[in-house]
Every structure is written in C-alpha cells, then in structure tokens.
Fold this protein.
Amino acid sequence: MSRQYLVRIGILGHVGRFTAVDSLSYQRNQRVICRTVRGLEVGEILAPASDDALHETDGSLIRRVATEDELLLTRLERNRQDAYEACVRELADRQIDAMLIDVEHLFDGQSLYFYFLGNVPPEVEPITGELANAYDSHAQFRRFTDTLTAGCGPDCGTDEATGCGSSCGSCAISQACHSHDQGVAKA
C-alpha cells in the first residue's frame, strides 16, 4: 500500500501530494526530504492525503530530515542569504529597477532560484546567472547530497558497508565538512 501525504515545499509554500518511498508513518509538522521536478527539497508534512483514490503525485517523499542534514541546511541558508545580498548589490550597482523578494537554494545544492516582484527586465538574467554559478556547488557537494539520498555503497548503514566503512551519517558528515569548506564559491 502506497502512503501519500500533503507536503508544503519551497520558500513560497507550494502544497503538493507526495508518495512515501518507505513504510514509515509521517506526522504533521515533520520536516522531510522530497524529490520534486526541481530536485531534492525540504518539506513539511501537513496531513495524510486521502486514500480513497491514489492520485498523481508531485514527487516522492524520501525520508525525514536527519540530524546530519542540519549541517547542509545551515550552509544552504547562509548561501541563500549571501546570494540575496549579492543580487541586491548588483542590481543597485547597475541601477536596474527590479525588486528581488527572495532567493531559494534547494536541498540538493544544485538549484538556486531568485524571486522578483513584477516584471523583470532582461538585464537581470545575466546577474542571476552569474550568481547561480558563483553559488553553485562543485562535484564534491553533489556527491555529498547523493550520499544523503542513496547511501555510500552496498550495505550502507551497516558494519558490512563497502562504500566508506561506516554508516551514512558518519560519511555524510565527514564529506560535508571537507567539501563545503572548499566546494562553494563566494560571489
């Protein structure tokens, strides 16, 4: 039996229907990792979706947000704030009349979204492109998020693990400490 949940995702609070990939029961207000068309995103459980008919979903509910994820979320929040401030500075320096209202950095670290109010002049696109490249992650960072999602190799999370020789939590934290300090360019 497939479990579907209504989950609020993204900085703008989109509510979607997500199918859990495991047999766990999720409770209201739990933070979870979801795979959407945009990538991996953090969401918040709102309620179980009705079971009367399984509907098309907006993606998969992968798992709960783990303690190890907090390191990544802290880094993403810092990058999000830095990208916002850098974009505001660039708009002012170039005297471009556009109102940036927020920036969103997805959990997978591969997508950075800039949200503007009203019509956005074409001069904004190169700025956001440069900033997205500046805050985009390198291969090490992507490998870290892949490990958080899929594990480090056969038998991941057991003593028999061949990927890193320890559980996912240990290798994820180790990779985060090494790759984040070197893998994120500053604008």
User: Anything to note?
Assistant: The longest strand covers residues 39-48. Residues 137-148, 152-159, 161-187 have pLDDT under 50 and may be disordered. The radius of gyration is 18 Å.
